[in-house]
Amino acid sequence: MTLETTIARARSQSLSGMLRRVAERHASRTAIICGDVSWTYAEFVAEIDRLASGLRALGIGAGDRVAILARNSHAFIALRFAIARADAVLVPINFMLNAEDVRFILDHAGARVLFADATTIEVAHAARGASVEHLFGIDGENVPPPAGVPSWQMLIHDEPLPQEERGGEDLLQIVYTSGTESRPKGAMLSHNAVLWEYQSCIIDCEWTPDTVALHAMPLFHCAQLDCHIGPALHVGARNIITGSPSADNILRLLTQHRITSFFAPPTVWISLLRAPEMATSDLSALEKGYYGASIMPVEVLRELRARLPQLRLWNLYGQTEIAPVATVLFPEEHATRLGSAGRPTLHVETRIVDDAMNPVAPGEIGEIVHRSPQLLTGYWNDPERTADAFAGGWFHSGDLGTIDADGYITVIDRKKDMIKSGGENVASREVEEALYQHPAVSEVAVIGLPDPRWIEAVTAIVVAREGHAPGASDILAHCAALLSSFKVPKRVIFVETLPRNASGKILKRELRLSLLAEQPNA
Prior knowledge:
Layout: H1 3-11, H2 15-25, E1 30-34, E2 37-40, H3 41-57, E3 65-69, H4 74-85, E4 89-92, H5 99-109, E5 113-116, H6 121-127, E6 134-137, E7 171-177, E8 185-190, H7 191-204, E9 212-215, H8 222-235, E10 238-241, H9 247-256, E11 261-263, H10 266-274, E12 288-292, H11 298-307, E13 312-318, E14 325-329, E15 343-344, E16 349-353, E17 366-371, E18 378-379, H12 383-389, E19 395-403, E20 409-414, E21 418-421, E22 424-427, H13 428-435, E23 441-451, E24 455-464, H14 472-480, E25 491-494, H15 508-518
Parallel strand pairs: 1-10, 3-4, 3-5, 5-6, 9-10, 9-11, 11-12, 12-13, 24-25
Antiparallel strand pairs: 1-2, 7-8, 8-18, 13-14, 14-15, 16-17, 17-19, 19-20, 21-22, 23-24
Helix pairs in contact: 2-3, 2-4, 3-4, 5-6, 7-8, 10-11
């Protein structure tokens, strides 16, 4: 081993090494509570080491991909760190995807191991492709592993592991994002990228060892995984995990555990405000609230502040590729800047640029671009889209926004027609391709329209073929047979023609504006 290699190893950092250091400082503090399971930091790290040893015994090692298709549980978060401890690569998968979508991710990533719980095991069986050598069942929240497959507990192995060999710029996880294409792309994030992002969140979101956090949003999503539970564990906070994000369950846990910190997309905050249990729930301990994933209506923010005056709110904007927080609107800034995405977080540099990469003037619309050590190292097996994303030496978010004279950013639109419905990304092109398979559809445009529940409702604007008169129910049934449930349009609107420009391109922005003018309460 060369001196340079020896020094590089001494300077390297890894996700599992971070947690081991936390456990040495806070061994007896409670790390994880999920249903009937409670682990101190010392117990948590010991469980991780035994699971990692079991993965190694299977032959899983440096760079091997391991997928999790499951709802939140203590098992999910233990495996997240055990995969890193085994020097392998995590591939978290959206449990709302259908078998075809899951199969694509498994095959594209080349995942060798797949973990599923009782709610996803049927999809896991149907999606299992040639690359998956091992399928294990894991516990849910107070729910045993599914029958008929080996339990994750069979991995428990007491063979001591060597010190972490990988870290720094080694690959930690591949998180698939729909983007705007019909097939998702895998964002490759290193140990360094995620740990830099944890530092941004710890400082700007005020994570401390005294924090008691509820993690109810899906851990497959980078927001809950890397904006919240990761930074919370980094500082030695107490973490309550639930796989049921219903309003009544969240309110029960907020009260029972005297939760001080909670993150949710706008749709969930709205559901809490509308829940009958809200009036009788004691949320006096809840000090820090975070929202993101989609734009929060200003009126809802005002209602939250009125109902929970002690609650300080943060708006977090970003995307998977930046691990994922890029900008922050702080609590004290909400009074005068409701609707803004704030300014760049600690380790991010952000600009708004035109098509020639020149910064736009305050108030002008341009694309949001970033530079940061938090950024992905590229898209898995996709050099062309990687090159496009980093054109000009900045990462192109694909979002349009404005910046004011004080550096505050407002997100205006998705440059490539991304729809964020209920906090989940939906690619309009994928829905359009499914609709075009309907024999009665001549033309279609899929857009997002404001919705009181979903924030953006996937909306199909359909031109019927001559001589056909399809109904909305027929169109929706057709989509349901081809798409994951959250991608199915919430509305179908029939029109005679679609607006186009001189080159024949459908003008979705004009279409959206005209529909909003006709249906102001849409």
